[in-house]
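Late entry, copper (II) ion complex.
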Amino acid sequence: MYKLLLIFLFATFALFSCATFAETNQPNNEEALIGKPGDPSEVSRTIKLTLLDNMFLPPEVIVSKGETIKFILNNLGNNTHQFLIGSAYDLKKAAKMRQKNKNLIRINPAEQKELIWQFGNAGTVHFACPIKDHFITMRGRITVEK
Ligand SMILES: [Cu+2]
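Prediction complete; structure with ligand written out below:
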């Protein structure tokens, strides 16, 4: 009986380890969820986003799975703003920690910048200006359709 229990425990542990391993070993999991910097030769559409004090226009964008979009970020506000794309968790973390992020784009008043981004799987990707006080209202959502 004791032996059986041991075997059972071992089998459970082995299964659990395999599942955990498969999950963490999935290649580019983050890329599948939020996408990655895109190739300029793959751009299928240009989407213009206007940054104001303190909101994005439009706040909602729809793209297709795997699509590469050129975002034109135009700051028509009086303040400097930032643009960060990621999961809701990433953005909250960035807003909280003020950490340096390689994906963070800084746009001065009257300035325009571009970001070419290739989306991954269907789902929701978020964008925001993570600057203190801006983050409350300066957010948007990208729906990635199948
Ligand atoms: Cu801002």
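Residues 54, 81-82, 129, 131, 134, 138 surround copper (II) ion (CB under 6 Å). Will revisit in the morning.
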